[in-house]
Amino acid sequence: MFLPIYIYGSPVLRKESVDIGPDYPDLDKFLSDLWDTMYEADGVGLAAPQVGRNIRVFVVDASVNADEDPRLEGFRKTFINARIYERGGEETLFCEGCLSLPHLNEDVSRPSRIKIRYMDENFVEHDEEYDGFAARVIQHEYDHLEGKMFVDHLSPLRKTLIKSKLSAMAKGKYKAAYKTKLVK
Predict the structure, then answer these.
(1) Domain coverage including residue 50
(2) Distances from the Cα of 150 to the Cα of 29, 100, 127, angstroms
(3) DSSP codes of every residue in 168-184
(4) According to DSSP H, which parts of 24-183 are helical?
(5) 67-82 pLDDT per residue, tens
(6) Which residues are known catalytic residues?
(7) DSSP count for the chain of H helices, then E strands
(8) What is the CATH number of the domain that holds 55?
(9) What is the pTM of this model?
(10) How many domains would you assign to the chain?
């Protein structure tokens, strides 16, 4: 089932998410819906807050970049109760977009390497290190669990320059090719 993606201005996107356990109601169905929604919206990642749930869950499919980085072949992962505990490497700029900010793309600086602990969909714990595009997408989705969005990483000048776009979006003036929801 395709879930509506909450748009910038919706309070759920600014709340810190909570951990869940294996007994979370209908988790398998929710994860399936999260994947379906992400693919329907043509995304590479989607976090639970973006579909209205403040739980520490996100999904990532970074395989779209496998041509540039063969390590990403088949890179399709579910992250539950994730915690990034180390960030390092060079700060790199990359033009990011977000399904909760339709048609808004900006250059965002992030560390090129992360270490993260998380549980997969079977609640098996993982402690892994990522770099490059995978680290970028994971950090972007992880931010949603913390109540942050990529626009929070922009310089004050860039924020000023896009302020009217964000304001319009928060008032419902946007277009998206997927199902959306704006809750004020």
Answers:
(1) 5-181
(2) 28, 10, 24
(3) HHHTT----SS-EE---
(4) 27-40, 132-145, 156-170
(5) 999 999 999 999 999 9
(6) 141
(7) 3, 7
(8) 3.90.45.10
(9) 0.97
(10) 1
